[in-house]
Predict the structure.
Amino acid sequence: MSVTKDPVARGATFGSESRDPDHSRQRWLSLVERYALVGVFILVMVFFTFWSKTSKHFLTTADVQNVLGNQAVIGILALAIIIPLTCGEFDFSVGSVAGLPQVLCAGFMARLGLPLVVAIAAAIGVGALIGLSNGNTVARIGVNSLIVTLGVSTVAVGIVEWYTKGLSIINHISKSLTNLGNGNWLGIPRTIYFLAVVAVLVYYLLEQTPYGRYLHSIGSNRDAARLVGLRVERLILIAFVLSGALAGLAGVLLVARNGGASPQTGTVADTLQALAAAFLGATAIKPGRFNVPGTMIAIFFLAFTVTGLSLAGVANWINDVFNGAALFVAVLISTIVGRKRAGIG
Amino acid sequence: MSGLGGRDSDAEGQATPRPEDPPVLRVAHLSKAFPGTRALDDVSFDVRAGEFHALVGGNGSGKSTLIKILAGVYHGDPGGVITVGGREIPAERTSPDAARAAGLRFVHQNPAVFPAMSVAENLAIGRGFPTTRLHNVDWRAVRRRTAELIERFDIPARPDSLVRDLRPAERAMVAIARALQDQEGERSGVLVLDEPTASLARAEVVRLLGALTRYAASGQTILYVSHRLDEVVDSADRATVLRDGRLAGTLEGGELSEGRLIELIAGRPIEGVFPEMPRVDGEDIALEVRHLVGGPLSEVSFTLRRGEVLGVAGLLGSGRSELLKMIFGAYPKRSGEIVLGGHTVSFRDIGDAMRAGIAYVPEDRGGEAAFMDMSVSENMTAALVGRYWNGMRLNHRRADADAREAIGRFAVTAVSEHEDLATLSGGNQQKVILARWLLRRPTILLLDEPTHGVDVNARSEIYNLVRKVVSEGCSVVVVTSDFEELSHVSDRVIVLNHGRVHAELTGADINPTRLTELAYSTTEVAS
């Protein structure tokens, strides 16, 4: 789609013959850039499917269902994290903030005997409240978001430890909740439907609503966003509240999936995985922007690769190295792409 | 001030290099193609020894590409040759090391000095610190060498002065001294300055140009890239003009005038560059500012009629930008009233001002207006996103169609509305920002240096657009430090000086000389 120049505009005007080949080359390069991650994902899948060490179990129904089912929580956390990332703020607390509503949700049922709906609402509410506090400190007071959320994250871990005394809560958990976490619909784990719904909602929010556009603008240039009339502080605050609420929902799904709450789940490690997916996702589909489809591809790319590696009998510590390296490489690529787009590199 | 070397410009007049002197820098048949564009097309010119040579051209004319090839950041296309001091470098094999070895020294816009460090430290960073036998820094040697450089480059500072305490022009001089300090001969090589005055206030420009003219008079060859034509006319021996990547011409001392330069840059005679604004005589008042106080403004009052272009003249720090921001609700006012269409208004925030029909194009495009990594379409519609919300979703197709239409109407050179803003030239970015606000159909348009860092062609296009909205009844307040420009586009001018309206000019009184006089004068003038 080329927009013809008004004859008054006298920029660099050159013969169209010289432009076309360059142009198609550029378009090709941009296609490669957008779908590189998808390509690598397919290569990995093909490799593990046919590699003799893993071909027996990889891509069997049970294995795929297991991987998918386990990724719903990380997926929702990654979606939670890209909302504030879009406006240029880190929410480093999503993992641990999922952990706290998790134990509260289970605890409210087990210890207080509250009905399921109330427990779920309370869990999401607590997540949103933590988000409100994060957002307030970051947006209104102006404290660096990385520091604020890192601190809050540590506090949340501590509260979980206190509340559970280090023990899992597994009794009196609503059966309808645990069924949800473990059954399948049409052969696909039920938690994946939750992830899909949340992904569509976050996609809609970021790409189809004015609010999403405002977040992108704030992330691109905060001062300019303010000067086109955006109430920047309030918009950032809302981003943290949404992120916290989604982390709360992830906490509920943890209970559903694991049949209870454990102080060992919902931790900083989850935040890092979500962060890796978010940054890796920003290198795909819409390179240079945090985007939902890219993030989802990244989630499953990371999960299937790790599964393939463990099926091959690779030691457990490889997983940490792989997730860490993925985050590192993703941030590296995002930065390089970003510099190129900003015209620096 | 102590002179530099033997030739003192005041005593013996400008030592103009003679044509028979061999060129120190020769650029021959230099071309450079980027995907989709030819940035440079067979450009050739000479720079003579000891010459102050200006390189001018609009945005996208290729001058930055040329400088980057000289610096070895880019390679030229095969066929071009760059000769520095007799050493030939094929254009496709330029490199930072080759440029350095040949004696080319670069000082860029916003010179990279370290404000929190001393002059001595800033200079030493360019060549390494001398150390004693114990490998600690030999501060005595550092100070001694700094003192020599300060003397040689005539910098009014002490070795241990902190650079942040220096005036902006002096900071640029420190950067120049750092770039030139390791030359073998005192005045060998070529000093290349890339828009060193772009962010300097007028008084600082005069100071820096004074220093540069002295360096040139003592034999230093200077290649000087600038947007500011008055500087070029005042200081340069010759000027080479690029247009659309080609050589438009080289002007020798005698033919060097602002008019000739604009003709070469624009490729058309000067009369067409500034549209004359139709003078208004309507008495319909669109905006009245009464006793506005806040920030650097001690008390400002003025009226703006419907369909009028009101110019605001003043030096940096006179409060001109703050005045616009206060009207827009983006800067706190201490007291005073803003009357809009007969009603006193008080804006809680910028959104209120926008809804009241006010639009504001800030001075700092990169910092306060541009969303560089977002598309042209997203940039154009940034101030009216809500218009594309149909209750269910954002209508991207309609937004893109509007952007496409605006790209045509505002003569933006862009491949498509999906392109990132960063890929556009400065002038085209500015047109996108202007379009962003004009799409809202404001009744009052506040423009802060709308042509800052914009080439002559884009400048005239921007003012054509302004004239068009004015003819439709919009009122405009324009701030610019280019008094030539201000006198062409304004119906009326108020001069701010020390936070007050110092004078108000109309008709034939609006001319650059009078404006300069009033903006710089410190005594009260009866208006």
About this structure: Residues 17-103+229-271 of chain B form a domain with the Rossmann fold fold (CATH 3.40.50.300). The first strand of chain B starts at residue 23 and ends at 34. Chain B touches chain A through 56 residues (CB under 8 Å).
